[in-house]
Amino acid sequence: MIVNMKTGATAEEIDGVVQRAKSLKLGVQLNLGTDRTVVAILGSNTGKISTDTFAVLPGVEQVTRIMKPYKLAAREVKPQDTIVNIKGVEVGGKRFVVMAGPCAVESKEQLFEAAQIVTKAGASVLRGGAFKPRTSPFSFQGLEEAGLEILKQAKERFGIPIITEVMDTHEAKLVAGCADILQIGARNMQNFALLKEVGKIKRPVVLKRGFSSTVTEWLTAADYLLAEGNADVILCERGIRTFEDSTRFSMDISSIPVIKKFSHLPVIVDPSHAAGHYSLVPSIAKAAVAAGADGLLIEVHPNPKEALVDGLQSITPSDFTRLMNEMKPIAKAVGRYI
Ligand code: PEP
Ligand code: MN
Prior knowledge:
Layout: E1 2-5, H1 11-23, E2 27-32, E3 37-42, H2 52-55, E4 60-64, E5 84-86, E6 89-91, E7 97-101, H3 108-121, E8 125-127, H4 145-158, E9 162-165, H5 172-176, E10 181-184, H6 192-201, E11 205-208, H7 215-227, E12 233-237, H8 255-262, E13 267-269, H9 271-275, H10 281-291, E14 295-299, H11 317-333
Parallel strand pairs: 7-8, 7-14, 8-9, 9-10, 10-11, 11-12, 12-13, 13-14
Antiparallel strand pairs: 1-3, 1-4, 2-3, 5-6
Helix pairs in contact: 3-4, 3-11, 6-7, 10-11
The structure holds phosphoenolpyruvate (PEP) and manganese (II) ion.
């Protein structure tokens, strides 16, 4: 249930709504907007409570029910766009933010070379997996703790924020010791224990779309992070599984305007895992800019042929530099900049 307070409602009036909700053993989240406050009333039994319970309280303008399964991620709760600030890099604002780097951290040399290339070309966040979710147990699983150490060194050397994946609740604090953004992978989108744990850490999170999940399921998963009080949630479309097998996954470009319509959360696109092949990545990336995405998460490797993971879908430094330049006029055409 959403309680829209009147413009200029007093702190006492807002507290009156909060206390009434608490007396009914309901959860509460406040969105203190610039001109008006929205109080989200949460709990499995809100359906049994009449909207009049809150509508009669002083300072209340309107009470509505959110009929969708997701609540905190819904635009109704927060009409204004969320902007996530990662050490001065804003995702969800006018700037189209590019997060780039190798799929996995392989060595200090490899990551430093990648960091140098992507920063020079204009990326503002460095990606690199230390814990890798591999389909086969016999594939390279990542450098794990040693990989985190290399990421820390790259962060210090290049002064760039880091995004890296967290796969398990037990590693969440360890990964948060290095990551400026915690990445929750497609395979873990509905790992609710992990979502709760990462929600508690209160570090910006990129929540990838599960490749068999609907947008509604994705936004409802985001509610797990938001419900723990972590407001810094960025969604990432990375392609879904369809009957089409000429790409690794099918990029659901329409999920970007759909998310923008139904949610206040920023959404970025990972063209690499959708494409599965380097030759397709630039076109998908450019489509993402045009469709109104807030940024990219893209795999760039200093030498893709030597990559231990996802080499075929990783673009070369020169292709990345070219892509950065090609995206600029598209960003401008849709009122953004890179
Ligand atoms: C990745 O970003 O390297 C990754 C494993 O992505 P996804 O979770 O989307 O498959
Ligand atoms: Mn990858």
